[in-house]
Amino acid sequence: MNSNLPGKLLKRKLLELNSALFFAENDSLFKLPNHLVTEMELNEDGDEIRFAIPKPAQDIEAFDKEFPVRMEFFKKGIAYRLKIQGKGFINEDATELENWLTASPTRQEKVKSEPMIMVKVVVKYVDYTGNINSSFSGKLKMAGMQIFDSLFSHKGATVSV
């Protein structure tokens, strides 16, 4: 675990993973729903993340404008994960959202199907964790366990000695 990654390294790792689960962790009556984020922008230092999520059905004024946030970055086949905690903000600036959406054709397609809101996350804490199975011995051990399970765990089969 490393909670003090330099900004450039953090930015590179986040861009490499490029998908995260977003959790608003406030205790208010109305909070933003959990969401899978696949399109995001980071500032130069990597300490601010901006992305758009579908606008909730409730009136946006009912939500807290600032709230604690957790984001879990992951990607299949990559030997590490990042968990970020920070402060989230609902960005109500329509021109900033419009500029962000027009920067990518996939973002433009998303906004055609449903209205979006922009969320900005200021990173406060980073948990960098390497996966256990990333080493050769870990992969070999996992393969052995899977072979053993497939050979000796048939339903309804009995073994007598």
Write the layout of secondary structure elements.
Blueprint: H1 7-17, E1 20-24, E2 35-37, E3 40-42, E4 48-54, E5 66-73, E6 80-91, H2 94-102, H3 105-113, E7 116-130, H4 136-152
Antiparallel strand pairs: 1-2, 1-5, 3-4, 4-7, 5-6, 6-7
Structure description:
The chain is about 30% helix and about 35% strand. The protein is an alpha+beta fold. Residues about 155-160 have low confidence and may be disordered.
* Helix run count: 4
Low-confidence stretches: 155-161
What general outline do the C-alpha atoms trace?
A: elongated
Task: Assign the CATH class.
Answer: Mainly Beta
- Radius of gyration, Cα only, in angstroms? 21 Å
| Euclidean distance between termini CA atoms | 47 Å
Annotated CATH architecture: Roll
Q: Tell me the β content.
A: 25-35%
How many domains in all?
A: 1
Order of helices and strands: HEEEEEEHHEH
pLDDT averaged over residues? 80
Largest sheet: 7 strands, antiparallel
Helicity level: 25-40%
Q: What is the CATH homology-level superfamily?
A: Electron Transport, Fmn-binding Protein, Chain A
Number of strands: 7
Order of strands across the main sheet:
2-1-5-6-7-4-3
CATH topology: Pnp Oxidase, Chain A
Structural class estimated from helices and strands = alpha+beta
Name some characteristics of this structure.
29% helix, disordered C terminus, alpha+beta
Briefly summarize what is shown.
The chain is α+β, with helices and mostly antiparallel strands and 161 residues long. It contains four helices and seven strands. Strands 2-1-5-6-7-4-3 form a seven-stranded antiparallel beta sheet.
